[in-house]
């Protein structure tokens, strides 16, 4: 293949300015309100069906901006449910600007108090660089190799060796992106492609391919290739795993779009029946896959509570609610931190949404890549000069850089572990952070923040397998951790003084300490539900993941651990107490 060098940096993200006057004739807003559905023997219905518009005057009093009253608080359409529930009703509206900015109009509509949120629809894009090249398989060693040899390596090779030939069902991976081309190297799941782009008059449909527009760069194809490009096909550009069903979901056109269309795709994946926003028309077929992993390699500026912006800041509620619904069903969601050269990741969405795995990018040295956003990041992975497919032709490969590529690397690793273990996504995400390492971080990561560390696929797989086997969180007799001669000597010389036979070794998460994390040890009467707070008695809260305790009663109680950070605690993980039962007491203690 002809080795043609060409490098491109996509346009930076458009920022919503605070100025009053706009340059376009129309503005695009997202309006959301919570609705409390009421239960009856016929199902649940909304509180009313009023349709009066909600309007505000322009400052000059010569025109009005109006929003359909169905979206206002307390109004809306029928909500089908067997029980009463609080739902979010969202609608995208386009209004004539009359010379005013979108942020100004959104503020005026918010001031009516009729809506829970009115925000400017966030422009999103990807920003990355690529160079067309002849693939060289050893390039992949930098990110697939062991971090002891390659400072930014995530040890994908090590995990693959542990797995061997994958067996069982593939994991569904949804790639929300733009510019998907059909190639032999990246094989999409049959019948899986969709588009949720609504700009320029498009309607959601089943055609994921680029529109008839020149200059599209194949970003979605490249991202999909990092996750699941064909391995060992003689061309290079291996993906992390081929035990996946890749779903190409177009939410941008040639790298530009709106955050609301990303949310539409998330709602589609959650509902499965094509339900999107209020007033939407959709020709997209329902989602027919299983719960899996979603990768979103794009970002848009929304600001944060600390950024000083006047507009509503942070993750919009229409995005957060869609993510919450997916997380409740067991989905994993990876997103790029953004490529704004060290900007704070929490000022860009969806990186600033709760429940996502926000991925920063590292260079080959193991330090932060210059372009990567930082700060409130979950984990980091290699993101510079990664080999992947990049164009319409089967032999088009590029070296590609960006958090856009670091994120699917992590998504692929999570899919690999999920496919082999079928573990709960909550367990995988906890272990992802617990097994990440900061040992190769340089000054940039140490000062700016690159999350919990570099992702380690092999360590993650081993930890999840331990969790599934009940070996990750354990309570055992402390003396059983030494060899027989040491135990005998300690008991004979110090046993009476410190009652060594009554000490128990407690390990949380394999004894791996997490930054800014404490461990709450709880007990419940034997056989009762660990997750029910009424059953729980807290034994203690510890900063270390490995402690030695007395007064453990494995015959009468079950034990669990909650990991807590910044005042919030996660779900309860069960602790194996088999090695703390009387029959496993050291023989020296009889």
UniProtKB/TrEMBL annotation:
Residue span(s) of domain Peptidase S8/S53: 171-439
Residues at the active site: 182 (charge relay system), 219 (charge relay system), 404 (charge relay system)
Entry GO terms, CC: extracellular space
Entries under Pfam families matching the protein: Peptidase_S8
Residues of the signal peptide: 1-22
Annotated keywords: Hydrolase, Plasmid, Protease, Serine protease, Signal
GO MF terms, alphabetically ordered: serine-type endopeptidase activity
Top-level taxon of origin: Bacteria
GO biological process, one term: proteolysis
PROSITE patterns: SUBTILASE, SUBTILASE_SER
Assigned protein family: Belongs to the peptidase S8 family.
PANTHER family: CEREVISIN-RELATED (PTHR43806:SF11), PEPTIDASE S8 (PTHR43806)
Name of the protein described by the UniProt record: Peptidase S8/S53 domain-containing protein
């Amino acid at each position: 293949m002809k080795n043609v060098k060409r490098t491109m940096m996509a346009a930076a993200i458009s920022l919503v300015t605070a100025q009053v006057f706009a340059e376009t004739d129309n503005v695009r807003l997202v309006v959301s309100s919570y609705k409390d559905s009421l239960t009856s023997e016929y199902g649940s219905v909304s509180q009313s069906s009023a349709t009066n518009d909600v309007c505000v005057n322009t400052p000059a009093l010569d025109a009005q901006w109006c929003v359909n009253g169905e979206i206002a608080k307390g109004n809306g359409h029928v909500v089908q449910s067997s029980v009463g529930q609080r739902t979010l009703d969202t609608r995208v509206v386009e209004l004539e600007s009359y010379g005013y900015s979108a942020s100004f109009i959104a503020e005026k509509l918010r001031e009516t108090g009729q809506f829970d949120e009115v925000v400017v629809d966030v422009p999103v894009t990807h920003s990355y660089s690529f160079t067309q090249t002849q693939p060289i398989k050893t390039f992949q060693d930098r990110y697939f190799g062991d971090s002891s040899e390659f400072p930014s390596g995530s040890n994908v090779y090590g995990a693959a060796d542990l797995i061997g030939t994958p067996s069982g069902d593939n994991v569904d991976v949804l790639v929300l992106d733009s510019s998907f081309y059909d190639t032999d190297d990246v094989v999409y799941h049959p019948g899986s492609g969709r588009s949720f782009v609504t700009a320029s008059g498009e309607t959601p449909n089943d055609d994921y391919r680029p529109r008839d527009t020149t200059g599209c760069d194949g970003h979605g194809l490249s991202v999909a290739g990092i996750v699941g490009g064909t391995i060992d096909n003689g061309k290079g550009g291996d993906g992390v795993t081929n035990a996946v069903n890749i779903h190409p979901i177009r939410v941008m056109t040639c790298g530009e779009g709106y955050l609301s269309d990303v949310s539409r795709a998330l709602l589609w994946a959650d509902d499965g029946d094509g339900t999107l926003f209020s007033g939407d028309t959709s020709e997209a077929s329902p989602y027919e896959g299983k719960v899996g992993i979603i990768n979103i390699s794009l970002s848009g500026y929304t600001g944060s509570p600390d950024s000083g912006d006047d507009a509503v800041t942070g993750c919009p509620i229409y995005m957060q609610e869609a993510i919450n619904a997916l997380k409740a069903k067991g989905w994993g969601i990876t997103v790029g931190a953004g490529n704004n050269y060290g900007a704070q990741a929490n000022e860009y969405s969806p990186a600033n949404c709760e429940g996502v795995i926000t991925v920063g990018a590292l260079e080959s040295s193991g330090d932060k890549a210059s372009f990567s956003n930082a700060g409130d990041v979950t984990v980091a992975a290699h993101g510079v000069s990664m080999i992947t497919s990049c164009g319409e032709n089967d032999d088009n490969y590029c070296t590609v850089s960006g958090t856009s590529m670091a994120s699917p690397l992590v998504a692929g690793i999570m899919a690999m572990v999920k496919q082999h273990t079928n573990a709960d996504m909550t367990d995988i995400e906890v272990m992802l952070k617990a097994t990440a390492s900061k040992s190769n971080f340089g000054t940039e990561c140490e000062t700016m923040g690159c999350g919990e560390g570099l992702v380690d696929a092999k360590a993650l797989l081993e930890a999840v397998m331990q969790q599934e086997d009940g070996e990750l969180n354990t309570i055992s007799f402390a003396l059983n951790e030494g060899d027989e001669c040491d135990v005998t000597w300690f008991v004979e010389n110090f046993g009476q003084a410190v009652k060594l036979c009554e000490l128990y070794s407690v390990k949380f998460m394999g004894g791996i300490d997490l930054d800014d994390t404490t461990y709450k040890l709880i007990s419940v009467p034997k056989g009762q539900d660990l997750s029910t707070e009424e059953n729980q008695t807290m034994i203690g809260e510890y900063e270390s993941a490995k402690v030695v305790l007395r007064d453990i009663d494995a015959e009468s109680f079950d034990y669990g651990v909650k990991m807590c950070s910044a005042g919030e605690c996660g779900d309860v993980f069960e602790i194996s107490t088999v090695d703390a039962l009387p029959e496993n007491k050291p023989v020296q203690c009889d």
